[in-house]
Each structure stands twice: as C-alpha cells, then as structure tokens.
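Page 47, continued from p. 46.
Same chain as before, 264 aa.
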Amino acid sequence: MINKIIQDNLRDSKYDPSIADAVNREVELEEKKGKLNEKRKPEADKKETQISENSGDFKREGYIYVPSTKLYVAKERTLQGKTWEETHREIIPKGFVMQTPYEFMTFLTYLKDSKNIPDLKEKERKEILDDILKTGDWRAEWLNAKFVKGKGHRNLDIQYVTGIDRKGSLITKQEPLEACLNKNDYVTFNLNKQGLLTQSSGDNSYKQGKNIYFWYPRENTVAWFLTYSDRAGLSCYGGPDGSNAGLGVRLAIPTKINLGDLTQ
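Result:
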C-alpha cells in the first residue's frame, strides 16, 4: 500500500532522493504510532467494518420499516448471482438478515394493503410492488427457510439460518413445519405462522395483487419468491445451490442493530 502511495505521488515526477527520505521518515513515524496497519487494510475491509458496526453506509430512504416484524427492509434486491448459502455468508457479518417466508409475506402484504406508509410515496410503493409481482423478466429473491426431514407437516421441519460460527459454518435452528397447502396451485394470501400458504384461490390464472402461485415444500429445498412471464409466487421447492443473474436478496435489518444514518 505504501509503495502504491509513493508511486501515485511520484507518477509524473522525476525521482528525488529528498522526497523519498521524507516519505520513509513519515512511514517510520506511522509505524511507531501504530497507524501503518490501518493504511494497509483494503478499502473493502474498512467498509465491511463500518457496515458491521452501524450500517452507516445505508441511508434510511433505501428501506421500508415494517412495524409487525420490526425490520427495515430494502426497497431493492441486491447481491444477484449468489447461492443461498453464499448470500447468508455475505450479509450476516455486515449486520443484515435474509427475510423468512413469514417476514417477506408480511412485508409484501404491508406494501399491498397500506397506502400511507411513512416516508414512502405512492408512486414508489407501486413500483416496488410491480418489481415483486408484475409478470415479465425472470427475477427472484432468496428467503431464509430450508425444509429438512423432521416431525412436522409432510414429515418436515423448517430450518432457519441464525448466524455464522467461528469456523465459518452456518448456525441454524429448526421447528416442525406447520400445515400448509399440499399441492402446487394458485392461492390466496392466507398464511400459516411460518408464512406458507394455506388456501387455494380457485383461479386458473395469475391475477396480480389478488393471488399468487405456491409451490409446496419438499425435503432439502429452500424458499424463494419469484416472478416470470405468466405468474409470481412463493416457491418452497428451490435448490440451495442454484444461482442466477436475476436471483438476489432483499436485505433486512433488525431494529436491535445500531442503524446509524438509517434511523436519522
């Protein structure tokens, strides 16, 4: 890093021993003061530290506060092209979480049914809803739920990622899967306590804002919400190792995190 600083400063100048001596003396002083290691840190590392401490790089206007889940939820999807596990490993050290199906469906319902959301203009509310629900190009977002063998509905448990241990392994917790619809079908917005759909709508086609499609859970799959040419829906049948340029995550921040500029 110091060599790069010297090169940048002297790129357009002839070598001058007096300048080099001055730089060397400055470096020696910095070493004594313990500052050299800080200068050698990559900028990405510094940014990660800032985000982890107070999320100060993220402004309040980029998020929507959902009162019932106590989450600040990003208005846009990011981190496209990563697998489910890669996404968790990327966001957890920075203080973010991936929404569970319940949290995401609560966020979606809040957007759909509330027309006076604080600090959110009506035009922007409709644009975010269209990004989630309007048919068109394939796009999707990961949700924090994996379905594993267990003692619940369909002999499955639902597993959530809650952190990363010192060895870099994902920390998880799980609970029995509650009853949900047992077939792929168009559904109403009726949810169980885990955010999965419970009631067929009786429709034969997609109607934005009125119904969504539901792919029921199977063992060793994960949840995502996706939209494409003819429907939008909650899939509990995703492969955790998949990735796609249109598949990302909608970052969420629990209110217990020090939000820095986010709360100002």
